[in-house]
Structures are given as structure tokens and as C-alpha cells.
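Thread: quick sanity check before group meeting

JM: Hey all, I'm pulling together slides for Thursday and realized we never actually wrote out the predicted structure for the chain we discussed last week. Dropping the sequence here so it's in one place. If anyone has concerns about the input, flag it before I start.
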Amino acid sequence: MDYLQPSELAKKMIEAGEEKLNMSTKDTIIRGIGAGALLTLAAFFALTVITKTGSLIFGAILFPIGFIMLNMMKFDLITGVFTLAPLPVINKNPGATWAKVFRNWGLVFCSNFVGALMVVFLASFSVRFGYSGETSEIFPAFHKLLAKVGEGRTLGFEKWGMMGWFTCLVRGILCNWMVSMGVIGSMYAQSTIGKFFCMWAPIMCFFFMVFEHAVVNMFLFPFAMTMGADFTLGDFFLWNEIPTVIGNFIGGFFLVGLPIYLTHYKAKKAEAAAE
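JM (edit): ok, ran it. Output follows.
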């Protein structure tokens, strides 16, 4: 077979989580920066496609290439470690602790942000021709699109108060439900083409449905600010990034990582003990 059975997948997920907890600080940071940069470079590519074609579906079809590349390189996104890192702790693996989980999450989150901001600078420098003019003059289509997206998903949520904040959180949950299926898809598929499809399909879904992904947003909203969008960093964090991160954790861990562990690994262990 060119795919793993769910019980084998659950075991592999625990092993992957343990590997991440025991990874050196240097490797965690390098892989986090690489993941943030590759995913957000793909987001820049998708935005360019949408701007030039006017079609969201074309951007959604092409965007997953960044996710596929970073997973094939075993780079780490915060959305992926939300799903995998707690599993060895819950399974009571020797040496696996919550302190290691929070260390991993903190390092990956910060390094993803560094990678995303690198792309923000390079992308905005490229679009604005070395910051030689305003985007409304140089690239009006980009200016209009980014202003609409950035302001709509910060000030637009703020307009509705807590219901807006909660809406962003729900979109974060739905996003990482899909993204985490892509993460485990890269594990249970054994052939290269199988891995490609199992990662591509759920990532295309989340992008097309405009769900909220913490790392994509690390690029999207600072980039929108460089394009002239009228909102602040405070607006971005309060009305988008914070609820998105919380939602991504809930979606990844409670809707993917934990259910697979409980039904395919813990249940199997209990069965074996009973026999």
C-alpha cells in the first residue's frame, strides 16, 4: 500500500511530535524561518495571480505549492506543531513535557514571523520598485486589493465587536482543521504524488474559503500596511492575529490531532492491554 492505516498514522504523529519537542533551538528556528518564508512567498505568488486574473480560484489552486515545499523539507509552521507537539505529552512519553511544548510553540511562532517579515520586505520592495513611489500610483490593482483585504479583516471585524472577533476565531478553527489534514496527509501518503495531492487539496480549500491562517496573516497584513492600507499593528494583532492563533490551535489539536490519537492509538493500546 502507498498509504498508512490510521493506527500507523497515529503512531507516526506521536513520533513526529516528540521529534519536534527534542529538536535543538538552532534547528527549530531555521526550520521555522524557512516555513514562514516559503508559505508567505506562495501567498505573494497567489496574490499576484489573483490581481492579474481577477480569479480567487486560480490563486487557491496554485497557493498550496508553498505548503508542499515546506513540508517536503520538514520545515515547521505553528499550525502544524499545534497539532503534533502535545501528543507525546498526552501519551506520557518519557521526557515529553508541557514546558517543551510551549518552548517549541514559542520558537516556531517567532521564527515563522521572521520568515514572513523577510518576504514582506522583499515583496513590497519589488512591487513598489524599491520604495520609489506610492503603490496607488505604481501598482493600483495591488494597492486596491491589499487595502480591501487588510482593512476588511481587521477594522471590518472591529466594527462588529466581540462577534467580529469570534468570527475571526471561527475562521481560524476552520482553517487549521483543513491545514492539519494537509500536515497529516504528508505523513500517511507514502508516494510523492500521493503526498502532493493529500497536501494540496485541503490547503486549496482553506485558501479559497478565505479562512484565517496565522502565518499567512503574518505576511498579508504587514504587507497590506506597506501597500497603504489604513489600519495599525494593534488592529492587526487584536482583531486578527490573536483570535486566528487561538482558532488555529483549537482546529488543529481538538479537531485533528486529539481525535486521531484517541480513536486510533489510545483505543488500540487499550485493546492490546485487554487481550
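AS: nice. The CA atoms of residues 73 and 124 lie 26 Å apart. The chain has a mean pLDDT of 93.
JM: adding both to the slides.
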